[in-house]
Write a structure and sequence with these properties.
The complex is a heterotrimer. Chain A is α/β, with parallel strands linked by helices. Among the domains of chain A are: 79 residues, no CATH class; 207 residues, 3-Layer(aba) Sandwich (Rossmann fold), CATH 3.40.50. In chain A, 32% of the residues lie in helices and 22% in strands. Chain A starts with a strand and ends in a 6-residue tail after the last helix. Chain C folds into two domains: 71 residues, no CATH class; 214 residues, MetI-like (MetI-like fold, Orthogonal Bundle), CATH 1.10.3720. Chain C is built from twelve helices and no strands. The termini of chain C are close together. Classes of the chains: A alpha/beta, B mainly alpha, C mainly alpha. At the A-B interface, helix 14, strand 19, helix 15, helix 16 and helix 17 of A face helix 9 and helix 10 of B.
């Protein structure tokens, strides 16, 4: 069958003040009706630019070259701007990453949906409106007709992405390009949107290109996949083939970097790809991956590599033979965390840190005109942290986990309840005293380092504030810790902007550890990093933990990370704890329906698995207006009348597990 | 501590950018507006400081025999009086050079005073938030509502005009821009994670303000300083032009324009020369400010 | 919405009161009103007599309360200089200044918006460079000097427009142009920045992906978003034009409020100066509130559900 879209040797060059940058060099793609192509790559690999090039939506001053670019019967290379415009939104539709900003804030949903159809199909407003209602219902939006008069800001992120999808389907396109369509959404919503896209694609027999950095997403929704690295495709093939038998060392490295549920043991080293993606301004003389490749040989550095076909539809860009490339280099994974430390936490010992009925209420104005309303960001939470534990706090955005972290760090004082360290109330401690025991690592390595200070100054600052030792001694300590976390000593006098994201996160870790704290609170420490770098940082955190006898509190939304390093897990929903249990129990025998849903939404890169159906109601409730009774009841598939009326309390399910659910309460131990 | 091989540091040759200082210099080298602005401002400053050494004549000495001598390029002009003389026979070039003192002095002084007021209010409002912030916003609204030129005229005239009066009055009426910029920036920086990090390593509020926040505001403050200095220079000239600013016989460009106005129909140079000087200085100061803003603007991450 | 407007108005009233107090204090502390009324050559006895006669010997607080409570019922007192109620003076002179301010604002908005939008369409293109240079130049030209240059050029060398007086529309052309140009840089830069911002936004990319042509994207999707912040600035600029009229009116000898202010300052006429400062502030406050309300009405994000 002739593919619907065919692109050959596409290159895109951006004109920058400092010179040209070839963001995409010589990529070829094709996708047929009813087929889904996944393009996967880390940030800066050129995957989004490629899709914009197909749509002719590149920024001004960008040069696009290709030998072939054909959509259906139209030659995209010679199409006039107006011909292109009549394809866009009509035959080719595109869905973007940011649902919060991708809809025009000053027009209603209805107007934005109907104008697309009246433009391309010349139908009456009435016809377009009916179609809009039909599609909104199809994407699972209730009370569709009344939504038409709403503005984008009145909808949640998940709903906006549904509207975006419905809008793009108005003209029944033949090809739909989805650029990171679920990256900005919570996991439970992500699964729903992916399912929706797949269903619609099959129903309408569309071709689909899905662009993402998330191997799990690609594995589950696409038929074939192209892996991009530094502006090139390094491997192409069917999903099954690429994920089961990756050939290119980069693909192999990527797949090893992901903690796969059930296949990893807590505390084990993750595979990671060392080093950095090369700058695209480089004039490449050899393989672009050579400097990071574990199987590199001499000729890789000075021979330009072509994409070679190794079997039908299966291509790879590597000089090694298939067998050589596939040869396992790695020995058995090393255990990074010494298992004695941490695995046998004395649960009867006094907690090193605890929150006791901690509550944090913000007074929020929902809009300019309304009176203030209380928002219970954290609602009566009690957690104990014992020496050697890695407690993970998980939940979707808006569940209050970051506020909890800020309270534990003393950055936010609780409205009521207490936070204590070794039994002492922290509100009576000075900043300096607190900082000796508790330190933190933040999410965004770009904003957690002061841009005006050098790396050395940043890491030395805690020592300076605590007045420990002479300047010389402090410098020695700084250099020692820099070496330990893997920052070359010569970067002492460099500035944060000169470092990559991964290196910056290492600096943040060094700053937290230089005071030798007992407890480290990590707020999403890896979520701003690329997959391969994420694994480097997780490995480092694990090593340091047993080496320095640390206790971690980890805030995260990533269940794979949790399974990899946590010993105990706290699941939060709308400011409350719904379940606390040992990590093994959570993964093997979750109790609360929300925990179950959360776990089932995790997309591990398994090519033959489908996107799971989470059976959750569509949207996360507004924390200002929490539902009555059990706040989870509107989304819970098992909710009963009592759930709507009465809020469940957290109670012991077994010696190590506590659950807040009426249904679990009713039948204790039944699940065993 | 041992280094294990599992943690391969990211490769050597991993510095992905220049230091902030190197970046500034690199950008400044290609910024023509900045270079022009800086050159003119430096020249004007030198003229202002060393006026007595540079001026060829006394700016006050009247020579009624040589009244209204045209500038050197016009018919009847001579190299003795390069820019000619005014109605009282005073050397126009010398008055121009002395006038730079008034413009630069009042401009710098008032901008500095406004800066001190605005930065203090802005920092406290932005850092403390809550009531302090609301009071500061209220103060700002009041300040913006006042017709500043009109009020400055009245106050300077009522108190009795002198250069210190001008500096104080103009300074007290020009702090709002600093305040707005500093307040917004402080609020933004305060929400950044490096401030949270500073708190968790034990910094006090003072240490956070002076070690983490203020150094990151310097560039912006300098930009506002130069833009406000330009505004103040124009205001001083306007007041002097209207006769309520610098009083004769002191040489001020605004006053020179006012004095030349009577004869401007047949001797336009009397108005054109000081006006051009004023325009050049204000343009230069503005270009300098814009230039600093351009070269210090953060680049996007991509 | 009504509640919002009322709250804004209440806030405005509070600002007006504070401003009136500040003005009163500043003006009365800057000079001794008695000696100013008496004139330069007056003897100390004469000054004392005036002080008692005008009530200047009473505490400032008492005099402020008396003044503001009269203002509340529309009585601004009598001018020392013209010996007439200052409100009459205000009403008499206001039409000239309002004409000037509105025509200047029209010029500002037309020039600023047009240049700002076209500049943003092609950042770094020749039109953009031209617009930005014009902005930089306009910002650096002192208003009064531009006025004089215009008089020399278009009044004397090429006598197209009259250079002083306020009897025909022609008299307003030059002053409006001069006053209007002074605010062009702000409006231009704001429009340009807003437009560039909007054109680079995600929802404009969406609009392009939907297949709209450039014209439709510009006029239907970009302009409205980009102009939202300009609305309040234009309202504020109208307020500034009133203050700026002092210079323009004296250069072009227009007999409006600016000239009145100038004359009353030179005449040490505190009641008139006080009234003018207060009135300008009041107009400014009303305009800001109006701008806010207009903005809230135009931007659905600020509307009540």
């Amino acid at each position: 069958m002739k593919p619907l879209l065919e692109v050959k040797d596409l290159s895109v060059t951006l004109k920058l003040a400092e010179g040209d940058l070839t963001a995409v060099s010589g990529i070829s793609l094709s996708v047929a009706k009813g087929e889904t192509l996944g393009i996967v790559g880390e940030s800066g690999s050129g995957k989004s630019i490629s899709s914009l090039a197909v749509m002719d939506l590149l920024p001004k001053g960008t040069i696009r070259k290709a030998t072939t670019m054909r959509f259906g019967e139209t030659d995209l290379l010679s199409a006039t701007p107006s011909q292109m415009a009549s394809l866009r939104g009509n035959k080719i539709a595109m869905i973007f990453q940011e649902p919060m900003t991708s809809l025009n804030p000053v027009y209603t949903i209805g107007r934005q949906m109907t104008e697309l159809m009246t433009l391309h199909k010349g139908v009456s407003k009435k016809v377009a409106t009916d179609r809009a209602v039909e599609l909104l219902e199809k994407v699972g939006i209730t009370a569709a007709r009344s939504r038409l008069s709403q503005y984008p800001h009145q909808l949640s992120g998940g709903l906006r992405q549904r509207v975006m999808i419905a809008m793009m389907l108005m003209c029944e396109p033949e090809l739909i390009i989805a650029d990171e369509p679920t990256t900005a959404l919570d996991v439970t919503i992500q699964a729903q949107i992916l399912n929706l896209l797949r269903e619609l694609q099959q129903e309408m027999n569309m071709a689909m290109i899905i662009i993402t950095h998330d191997l799990g997403v690609v594995a589950r929704v696409s038929d074939k996949v192209s892996v991009m690295y530094a502006g090139q495709i390094v491997e192409t093939g069917s999903v099954e083939e690429v994920f089961r038998h990756p050939v290119h060392p980069y693909t192999q490295g990527l797949l090893e970097s992901i903690p796969v549920s059930g296949e990893i043991n807590p505390g084990e080293e993750l595979g990671s790809i060392p080093g950095l993606v090369p700058s695209l301004k480089t004039n490449f003389k050899g393989c672009r991956f050579a400097n990071r490749c574990s199987k590199v040989i001499e000729i890789c550095h000075n021979t330009l590599v072509d994409l070679n076909e190794i079997s039908s539809g299966r291509l790879t860009r590597c000089l090694l033979s298939e067998a050589e490339a596939r040869a396992k280099l790695k020995e058995e994974p090393k255990v990074l965390s010494d298992h004695v430390y941490g695995s046998r936490v004395d649960m009867t010992s006094a907690p090193v840190m605890s929150a006791d009925n901690a509550q944090c209420v913000f007074q929020i104005k929902p809009n300019m005109f309304a009176p203030k309303k209380p928002l219970r960001a954290v609602d009566n939470i009690s957690i104990d942290l014992r020496k050697g534990e890695v407690v993970a706090v998980v939940g979707e955005s808006g569940c209050g986990k970051s506020t909890l972290a800020r309270m534990l760090l003393g950055l936010q004082s609780p409205t009521s309840g207490t936070i204590s360290l070794d039994g002492e109330d922290v509100s009576e401690m000075s900043n300096v005293e607190k900082s000796k025991r508790v330190q933190s690592i933040f999410q965004d390595p770009y904003s957690s380092l002061n841009p005006r200070r050098t790396i050395g100054e940043i890491i030395r600052r805690p020592l300076q504030l605590h007045g420990s030792g002479t300047t010389e001694e402090q410098k020695e300590q700084v250099e020692a810790i820099m070496e330990r976390v893997g920052i070359p000593r010569r970067l002492y006098h460099n500035y944060p902007n000169q470092l990559s994201g991964g290196q910056r996160q290492r600096v943040a870790i060094a700053r937290a550890l230089v005071l030798k704290p007992e407890i480290v609170i990590c707020d999403e420490p890896t979520s701003a990093l690329d997959v391969s770098v994420q694994a480097q940082i997780l490995n480092l955190l694990l090593e340091l933990r047993s080496e320095l006898r640390l206790t971690y509190l980890l805030i995260t939304h990533d269940m794979a990370v949790v399974e990899h390093i946590a010993t105990r897990v706290v699941v939060m929903y709308l400011g409350r704890v719904v379940e606390i249990a040992d990590a093994r129990d959570i993964f093997q025998n979750p109790q609360h329906p929300y925990t179950k849903a959360l776990l089932s939404s995790v997309l591990t890169p398994e090519p033959d698995a489908d996107v799971p159906d989470t059976q959750l109601g569509t949207s996360y409730p507004n924390p200002i207006d929490p539902p009555s009774g059990c706040t989870f009841h509107p989304r819970c598939p098992l909710a009963t009348q009592v759930c709507k009326e009465r809020a469940p309390v957290l109670s012991k399910f077994n010696p190590t597990t506590e659950v807040a659910c009426h249904l679990v309460e009713a039948a204790p131990m039944a699940a065993e | 501590m041992t280094t294990t091989a599992t943690n391969t540091p990211e490769m050597v040759g991993d510095i992905i950018d220049l230091t902030p200082k190197e970046r500034l210099i690199k950008k400044a080298k290609v910024h023509r507006g900045l270079q022009f602005g800086a050159t003119v401002v430096v020249i004007m400053t030198i003229l202002a400081i060393f006026a007595p050494l540079i001026a060829p004549h006394s700016p006050y000495e009247q020579d009624l025999a040589n009244r209204l001598v045209p500038p050197v390029w016009a018919d009847g002009g001579s190299w003795t009086y390069i820019f000619g003389t005014d109605q009282l026979g005073r050397d126009y070039l010398s008055r121009l050079i002395y006038g730079a003192r008034v413009s630069m002095g009042v401009g710098f002084g008032a901008a500095a005073l406004g800066c001190a007021i605005g930065v203090t209010i802005g920092l406290s409002a932005g850092y403390l938030g809550g009531f302090a912030d609301r009071s500061a916003s209220f103060l700002l609204t009041c300040q913006l509502a006042l017709p500043s030129l009109l009020l400055a005229m009245a106050l300077v005239f009522f108190v009795g005009s002198s250069i210190p009066t001008l500096i104080v009055v103009l300074g007290c009426l020009h702090w709002s821009y600093y305040m707005v910029v500093v307040r917004t920036m402080t609020r933004q920086i305060r929400a950044l994670e490096y401030v949270s990090a500073a708190q968790t390593i034990g910094s006090t509020d003072r240490q956070i303000l002076f070690y983490e926040i203020l150094p990151n505001l310097f560039n912006q403050i300098i930009v506002v300083f130069s833009l406000e200095m330009a505004v103040v220079i124009i205001h001083e000239a306007s007041l002097s032009f209207l006769g309520v600013g610098v009083q004769p016989p002191t040489a001020s460009w605004g006053l020179m324009i006012a004095e030349g106005k009577e004869a401007m129909y047949f001797k336009p140079y009397l108005v054109v020369i000081p006006g051009t000087a004023l325009f050049l200085l204000v343009l230069a100061v503005n270009l300098l400010g814009d230039g600093i803003r351009d070269i210090t603007a953060p680049e996007s991450r991509n | 919405m009504l509640k919002f407007i009322l709250r804004r108005l209440g806030m405005g009233l509070l600002v007006a009161l504070t401003v009136s107090l500040a003005t009163f204090l500043m003006l009365n502390l800057a000079a001794d009103p008695a000696s100013m009324v008496a004139g330069e050559d007056a003897s100390p006895e004469a000054i004392e007599q005036i002080r008692v006669q005008y009530g200047f010997d009473r505490p400032l607080a008492v005099r402020y309360v008396e003044w503001i409570s009269r203002v509340a019922v529309g009585d601004f007192g009598d001018s020392y200089y013209w010996k007439r109620p200052v409100l009459d003076l205000f009403l008499e002179r206001a039409p000239v200044t309002l004409t000037l301010a509105f025509s200047a604002l029209t010029i500002t908005v037309i020039v600023g918006l047009l240049l700002g939008v076209t500049a943003a369409l092609k950042p770094n293109g020749w039109l953009d460079r031209f617009a930005l240079s014009l902005g930089t130049v306009a910002q650096a030209v002192p208003n009064f000097w531009l006025g004089l240059m215009m008089i020399i050029l278009l009044g004397v060398m090429f006598p197209i427009f009259p250079v002083s007086g306020d009897t025909s529309w022609k008299h307003f052309v030059l002053p409006s142009f001069v006053l209007g140009m002074s605010a062009v840089p702000q409006v231009l830069r704001l429009t340009r920045a807003g437009m560039i911002d909007v054109l680079g936004s995600d929802y404009i990319r969406t609009a392009r992906a939907k297949g709209f042509g450039p014209g439709r994207i510009l006029f239907q999707h970009a302009l409205r978003n980009a102009l939202l912040p300009v609305v309040s600035v234009v309202a504020i600029q109208l307020g500034y034009k009133l203050g700026g009229s002092v210079i323009t009116e004296s250069v072009f000898a227009l007999n409006g409020l600016g000239r009145l202010a100038y004359e009353s300052i030179l005449g040490a006429d505190i009641p008139t100066v006080q009234m003018l400062v207060f009135m300008f502030a009041l107009i400014f406050i009303v305009l800001t509130v109006a701008g806010d309300v207009l903005n809230a009405w135009l931007d659905p994000r600020m509307r009540v559900e």
